[in-house]
HlyD family efflux transporter periplasmic adaptor subunit
Amino acid sequence: MIIQRCVRRSPNATMPSVISKKTTVRAPAGGIVSQMASLNVGQFIATGSTIASLIKSTDTWIDANFKETQIEGLKAGLPVDVGVDAYPGLELHGTVDSIGAATGSQFALIPAQNATGNWVKVTQRITVRVKLDEANEANMPELRSGMSATVAVDTGRTTLEKML
């Protein structure tokens, strides 16, 4: 309604110029915009439509998937060393921020059906979120979502103690 009134009052104005002056695109946080291939100049988009993905760049964390047999002794606040496969020799430091409430299979869209009596035991994975220290920012290259990393948590116990 507002746009139609503006066009009627100003016969020299074109629809795209009026719309562009009245359009505001807002993001909930700072970051990198991706997946915009389907967006074209002059395209009309309904309010609330998803037009792109936003990857936040303000906080840096790593979601590590530990085997259920590896989470003994893990708790929030423990120190973590991280190596990123894309940057050999780079060592980042952080702390355990949180430990997932369930295994990844519990969040699957199609849960596994065990009606046939499948007795094969599969080790489950539990997500552990690692918050990287701000001290890393001086020498940290750009990390991208989905990169592979090696995560080592210092639980205060040696490998020999864990075996006993």
Observations:
- The longest helix spans residues 2-9.
- The beta strands are 31-34, 53-56, 61-67, 79-84, 91-103, 125-132, 149-153.
